[in-house]
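R.M. (postdoc): so does anyone remember the format we settled on? I'll just put the structure tokens first.
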């Protein structure tokens, strides 16, 4: 169990004094008495365990509320409920996040009990959506429908989610803990950047297993996960996740929050010692196994109309505009799904979505109706590939505004480069915490400032050539800052430079960047 840290920081003290999950009943009291009556320790720390995070500007007393959506899967009724809650209690806001969650803004503490009971009625929860606990378990948007998948891993995602949900054995971790489980062959859910990444493969003997990766993470100090050289049977997954989380709970750094994530323990111990400790806890040796073969991931955006493995059914993948949905939009999406006979939608880890189980005869009509909801079935690569974090509008840590900037960027690139069709991922992130993955996008922008004769201006630091999947690599940081209102021109120049100078029409952007020296990168655009 958690031990008292040497120099105990505030969050460690608050968690030790009272389990954060125990603040649920108090939350109901705060809802009756209002924002001003919430004690500081609960406001700044414990409420996060129920998905509540104070939003900027602090004096307005609003919260952002994150709803956990395991594997990103929602049925029409759930979508509709979230939409109705957004309209009624969250000023019509709803953002799709990089962990397949939906986040509402402008939530008042007075409305939280009504929101929680409405979510509960449709089987949704916010418990563990934020805080030092296991976060939403992510999974493949095509689980159970992809012809080429090794296994439908969604039932395992659900089991792991249930195992950790409200589990007081694991409700006081040193820091957040992120798990992803993917059964498909494209490996697109980011196993390289999660605390636990499980990716399916077929062993030489023919059976399906999960290759285990641990200790990845972004944030201000990015680190790729290590393979432990272990293959797990589906039956071993929950138990091994249990013990991995236990190792983190007991050995993670509680002195410094900046060094508390599992990635720092991996860096300190190395994978061999970590595996030894895991096997000691499990009580036996785990099966050795080789690395999976990861294909070039150009096809992993899941956009457009594609056949499912179920005869006669299709999935329709649509790009959002940098993750921004709306309550009205979710209600309309649920209605469209009912009208066209679709039973589920899945959010992706790239802030897009796929509508599943659509009968062939309904696909085209659904696709054109989605476009009217700003959900684009035949989008530009820029709309598909641009991520934006919460940014300055709501996030207290932000240095820059991100969502509107990303929209401006997409519009500019669509206008100036209409023919550009190479996969291209752009991240507009408001501070180094990397909620929108700037280190693993083709072009990653990180919010910063520059000082000009007219005063301080928003600007962005630039990372180029980041990539997950085959040949995964972090982007390389340039020695420059681009004023925020000029990033659209910068990306346009960069994209043109790439088109003119790439070795051939199949050279991907990360490979193009990789063969340039640091000095050459500075003058590419
Ligand atoms: C120390 C503070 C923070 C750190 C280090 C941090 C770091 C991160 C990282 C690395 C991710 C990527 C998630 C993944 O895909 O695995 C993430 C996700 C996210 N963060 Fe933060 N973040 C911080 C605070 C915040 C704040 C204050 C907000 C907004 C008010 C925020 C909003 C989000 C959102 C919306 C996501 C998307 C994923 C989800 O649903 O969990 N973060 N964060
Ligand atoms: S990256 Fe920074 S600015 Fe953006 S949401 Fe995360 S903490 Fe806020």
């Amino acid at each position: 169990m958690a031990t008292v840290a040497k120099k105990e920081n505030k969050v460690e003290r608050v968690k030790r004094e009272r389990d954060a999950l125990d603040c649920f009943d108090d939350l109901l009291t705060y809802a009756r008495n209002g924002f001003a009556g919430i004690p500081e320790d609960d406001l700044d720390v414990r409420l996060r365990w129920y998905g509540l995070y104070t939003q900027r500007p602090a004096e307005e007393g609003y919260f952002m509320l994150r709803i956990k959506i395991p594997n990103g899967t929602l049925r029409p009724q759930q979508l509709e409920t979230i939409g109705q809650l957004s309209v009624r209690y969250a000023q019509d806001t709803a953002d799709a996040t990089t962990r397949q969650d939906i986040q509402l803004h402008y939530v008042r503490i007075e409305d939280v009990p009504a929101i929680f009971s409405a979510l509960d009625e449709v089987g949704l929860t916010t418990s563990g959506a934020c805080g030092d606990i296991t976060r939403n378990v992510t999974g493949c948007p095509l689980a159970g429908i992809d012809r080429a998948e090794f296994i439908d891993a969604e039932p395992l995602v659900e089991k792991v989610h249930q195992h950790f949900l409200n589990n007081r054995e694991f409700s006081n971790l040193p820091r957040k803990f992120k798990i992803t489980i993917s059964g498909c062959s494209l490996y697109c859910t980011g196993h390289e950047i999660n605390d636990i990444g499980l990716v399916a493969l077929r062993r030489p003997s023919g059976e399906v297993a999960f290759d285990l990766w641990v200790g990845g993470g972004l944030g201000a100090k990015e680190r790729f996960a290590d393979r432990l050289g272990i293959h797990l049977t589906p039956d071993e997954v929950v138990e091994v996740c249990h013990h991995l989380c236990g190792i983190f709970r007991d050995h993670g750094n509680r002195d410094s929050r900046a060094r508390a994530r599992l990635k720092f323990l991996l860096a300190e111990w190395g994978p061999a010692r970590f595996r030894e400790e895991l096997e000691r806890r499990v009580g036996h040796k785990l099966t050795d196994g080789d690395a999976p073969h990861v294909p070039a991931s150009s096809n992993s955006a899941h956009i457009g109309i594609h056949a499912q493995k179920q005869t006669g059914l299709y999935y329709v993948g649509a790009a959002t505009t940098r993750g921004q949905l709306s309550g009205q939009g979710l209600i309309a999406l649920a209605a469209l799904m009912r009208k066209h006979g679709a039973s589920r939608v899945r959010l992706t880890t790239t802030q897009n979505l796929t509508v599943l189980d659509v009968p062939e005869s309904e696909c085209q009509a659904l696709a054109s109706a989605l476009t009217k909801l700003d959900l684009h079935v035949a989008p530009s690569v820029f709309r598909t590939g641009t991520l934006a974090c919460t940014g300055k509008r709501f996030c207290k840590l932000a240095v820059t505004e991100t969502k509107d900037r990303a929209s401006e960027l997409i519009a500019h690139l669509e206008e100036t480069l209409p023919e550009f069709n190479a996969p291209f991922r752009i991240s507009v992130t408001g501070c180094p915490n990397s909620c929108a993955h700037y280190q693993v996008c083709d072009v990653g922008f990180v919010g910063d400032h520059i000082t000009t004769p007219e005063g301080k201006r928003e600007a962005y630091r630039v990372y180029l050539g980041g990539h997950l999947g085959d040949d995964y690599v972090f982007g390389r940081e340039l020695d420059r800052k681009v004023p925020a209102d000029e990033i659209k021109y910068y990306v346009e120049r960069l994209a043109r430079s790439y088109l003119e100078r790439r070795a051939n029409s199949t050279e991907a952007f990360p490979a193009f960047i990789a063969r340039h020296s640091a000095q050459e990168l500075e003058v590419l655009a």
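R.M.: ...and that's the designed sequence above, right after the tokens. Also worth knowing: The chain has a mean pLDDT of 96. The two ends are 53 Å apart (CA to CA).
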